[in-house]
Amino acid sequence: MSDIKFDFSNCDVSIEKMFDIHDNQKVEIYNNMPNSKINGTKKGKGNSSSTTTQKPELQHGVEYPVFSKGSGVTDDHIIALYRLLTARGWISTQTKEVDFLRLFSGKNNDCEIIWTGQDKLGDNKPIKLGVSALYVLFKDMYDESRITTSSKAQKVGPILEMHFVDTDGHFLTNVSNVSRTSEKAYVYIQLIKNTMRMRPSSEYIQRILEEDMESKHDKNDRQDLNYRKPR
Q1: Which residues pair with 114 in a beta bridge?
Q2: Rounded to an integer, what distance in angstroms lies between the CA atom of residue 106 and that of residue 163?
Q3: Rounded to an integer, what distance in angstroms lies between the CA atom of residue 150 and that of residue 158?
Q4: How many CB atoms lie within 10 A of CB 206?
Q5: I need a labelling partner for 38 at 20 to 30 A (CA). Which of 58, 71, 165, 207 fits?
Q6: Model's pTM, two decimal places?
Q7: Residue 125, Cα to own-chain centre: how many angstroms?
Q8: Which residues contact 68 (CB under 8 A, 6 or more apart)?
Q9: The Cα angle at residue 32 between residues 31 and 38, in degrees rounded to 5
């Protein structure tokens, strides 16, 4: 049976009552108003009456919500966190320190952080990290009030999805749908997270802040926080 097309305006009628529309038969309704085309299909068995709202597509260069620093957390903490994450390879060195600081500025901005999905300072060889490691790290910091959001309605996962991209420049997805990570990754998370608990004047943080980050690429330079050099 052919589809039905009907043109009318200023009417409030039931199309299904006017015509014997069979299941899955396409109906196109027109009126005289611009952009007023409405496509419909009679609901039959197997057709859902509910509609799903699609998540808006993220765009580069658009300002999105970010985190704020919690009580007692300073820029030195954030810089130390940035340098640890780049040293371990969790985020790319192409990510600028200033952009990482902006992620905790409390003011909407368009900073983008490049997530590599690996830890290169693990035992023997680099290990792959799922986005779960990223989420658990930030969720733990949030639960401990090291970082905050603008409101309780603003969740950790969506903020990460708005600002973290993979090495191909694509925004990370499904960050909000994870709740746990591997035991090995969690050990690394605890080591990294400890930085946020220390006083900025602590010897450990001062060593990180004073460190030559380029030294990590030099196999003969052993000043790099006692981390094993890449082979």
Answers
A1: 165
A2: 13
A3: 13
A4: 15
A5: 58
A6: 0.67
A7: 26
A8: 104, 105, 106, 147, 148, 149, 150
A9: 35
